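Section 5: illustrative case.
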């Protein structure tokens, strides 16, 4: 076996430490040399769980290239601000001022004396269609990296939460060699297997099927794009529509859906009368006026919507609402409440009484927000293991906000494991298993 390598990691846009936890869970050894973030609240949570030693509250673009070279880090983990690329944002891409730090990193990468050998970038679905993605790809090619792009959702590793994200994994081939599996030149929808005996190369994830070119680009067009720098939009127009990632399809397939866990194990509180629930219950005014707009789930279900930083603040498209009264039919209860509200003329005593009765009906469902710790568990943070918590000074809204800006730890840990494993390590692991010895998680590298 190759000698165990201890990786030196720079964690950019470190937030509450999602990448830190993901690296720890990846099976590889090493240390976070420095973590960069300018969000004070996120840094307080990070320091609370990981300590202040490696934390740097500095603008990434204000750090000169010489200091990055001095760190001599062989791994860069990053999750740049997503607002320039979200469907609810202005989608200005690299023109957005929040992309400035990412562009700076792309500018200095080819100029560095000690560039990283490995890079992992995470962002929202939509990044793959931006000019920032084109800059990323052009920079990686110029700097001698081999890379694989992916769209992955936590549903694929059995977690009942929809959080489709773009990932780019890159290796400096001249220094550390190629990936265990050949790169496809396309945007794929699965994490390749480290098992060299697996001829198909797909992990035994929930959606183990290779869905092909998930971005809507054909293989030839994607290769052309990587070689020529043609923009995503230009290439897409010239190609036939291919299969795209569809989280609903996973849950619609009976066999695949059964491999996704139910929400039950992620729920901490089910008692409507629990005094701790008061701050999580849906306010009466919101329940009566906007309740039907919520995505309402029960613990027997195998899905929940993506939790965003606006959860607990806005109603639509910010995350699911949990129904504690499992036996109550949600749709029927809302229908009955709506019928009551429609019976009387507005602003009459009868309308007031009907609204009060409708509210009582809706209250009977026991609707509440997921607690911040339930959200954290769905996002893979080790809260249940006692390794993650919030400082007492962090308000509930702040907790939801920093979680909404974070990553799914479990997904990223699998990606880091794949990124940092060399072909020699995968071959050694396969040989160990073949000889009847239990394999240890890959921690070796040819670096």
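Designed sequence:
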């Amino acid at each position: 076996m190759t000698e165990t390598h201890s990786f030196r990691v720079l964690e950019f846009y470190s937030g509450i430490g999602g990448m830190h936890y993901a690296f720890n869970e990846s099976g590889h050894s090493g240390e976070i040399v420095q973590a960069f973030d300018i969000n004070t609240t996120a840094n307080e949570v990070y320091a609370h769980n990981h300590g202040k030693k490696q934390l740097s509250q500095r603008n990434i673009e204000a750090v000169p290239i010489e200091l990055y070279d001095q760190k001599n880090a062989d791994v860069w983990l990053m999750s740049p601000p997503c607002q320039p690329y979200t469907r609810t944002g202005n989608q200005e891409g690299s023109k957005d001022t929040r992309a400035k730090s990412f562009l700076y990193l792309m500018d200095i990468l080819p100029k560095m004396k000690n560039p990283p050998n490995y890079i992992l970038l995470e962002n929202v679905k939509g990044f793959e269609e931006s000019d920032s993605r084109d800059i990323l790809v052009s920079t990686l090619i110029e700097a001698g990296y081999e890379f694989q792009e992916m769209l992955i959702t936590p549903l694929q590793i059995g977690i009942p939460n929809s959080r489709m994200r773009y990932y780019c994994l890159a290796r400096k081939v001249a220094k550390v060699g190629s990936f265990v599996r050949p790169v496809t030149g396309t945007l794929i929808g699965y994490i390749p297997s480290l098992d060299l005996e697996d001829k198909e190369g797909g992990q035994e994830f929930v959606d183990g099927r290779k869905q092909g070119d998930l971005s809507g680009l054909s293989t030839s067009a994607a290769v052309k794009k990587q070689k020529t720098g043609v923009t995503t939009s230009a290439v897409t127009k010239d190609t036939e529509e291919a299969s795209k990632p569809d989280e609903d399809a996973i849950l619609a397939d009976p066999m695949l859906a059964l491999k996704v866990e139910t929400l039950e194990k992620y729920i901490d509180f089910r008692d409507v009368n629990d005094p701790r629930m008061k701050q999580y219950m849906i306010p009466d005014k919101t329940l009566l006026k906007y309740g039907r707009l919520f995505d309402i789930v029960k613990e027997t279900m195998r899905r929940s919507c993506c939790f965003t930083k606006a959860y607990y603040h806005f109603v639509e498209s910010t995350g699911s609402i949990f129904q504690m009264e499992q036996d109550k039919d949600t749709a029927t209860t809302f229908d009955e409440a709506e019928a009551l509200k429609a019976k009387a003329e507005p602003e009459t005593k009868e309308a007031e009484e009907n609204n009060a009765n409708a509210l009582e009906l809706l209250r009977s469902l026991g609707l509440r927000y997921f607690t911040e710790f339930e959200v954290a568990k769905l996002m893979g943070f080790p809260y249940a293991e006692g390794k993650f918590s919030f400082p007492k000074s962090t308000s509930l809204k702040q907790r939801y906000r920093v979680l909404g800006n974070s990553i799914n730890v479990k997904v990223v840990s699998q990606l880091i494991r794949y990124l940092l494993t060399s072909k020699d390590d995968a071959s050694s692991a396969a040989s160990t298993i073949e000889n009847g010895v239990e394999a240890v998680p890959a921690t070796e590298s040819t670096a």
